[in-house]
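Section: Multi-chain targets

For targets with more than one molecule, the full set of components is provided together so that the structure can be written out for the assembly as a whole rather than chain by chain. Components appear in the order listed by the source. The example entry contains two components.
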Amino acid sequence: MAKYLFIQTRDPYESRQVDQDYELAAGLAGAGNEVTMFLVQNGVLPTRRGAQAPGLQQLIHTGVQVLCDEFSLRERGIATNALPVGVQATALDVVVDQLAEGRKAIWL
Amino acid sequence: MSSKPTLTFSIMDGPFEQARITTVMRLIDIAARRGYNINVFAYEGAVYLPFAKQAKHANAVHGHDVDQEDHPLSKDWIAALMKTAQANGGKLDWVNCGLCVDERGAQDSIEGCRRGSPADLWNSASASTNTLVVGTR
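Its structure, encoded as tokens over all components, is:
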């Protein structure tokens, strides 16, 4: 089993590629790998209350760990206590933790 | 390889344009505070990040003079990150792609940066715990 770190900087309203990124992460998790999707910069936008983001909703239910950068949320006025179930706000330190453990990392 | 992690970052965005650079600087800051060894390979527009002739400016729209505006400069961030890494027992080795520097006339970098080639990226990645490639779009 491999471990993957996806650093998602874009939102699905900016690029159709983002939904494909979610699908790739879900596919890796479905194949038994440990996968983290870390949302940062505009990547956090689909977590705001009322956002239409079916791709992210599907991702949450595939066993992928979905994390959000607290700073990016604050910049965009997104409350951490109103995130979708299955999405957790956290510090950027998690990315450094996972890089330091040698995860396969991809910047999206 | 020592037990202390070594991280390599490859970046290609110039200053004052993209949130990507801010995020990468935040990552480097975290690693520097932990005393990790850090390699940065800057190519294309990123060679202007440590450009020594960057200058703060006033902002008439804000009604601010130079001091009030306190415009952030990436060269100062990099210098501060180098100091942070060193203070915590680590090192930030910043390599600017030489060809990219020549193309842009960006030879005048702050102290502590050095000129290199993609071979430096290969060597750094080969000797690192992990490498993060931050591409532009």
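The CA atoms of residues 20 and 44 of chain A lie 16 Å apart.
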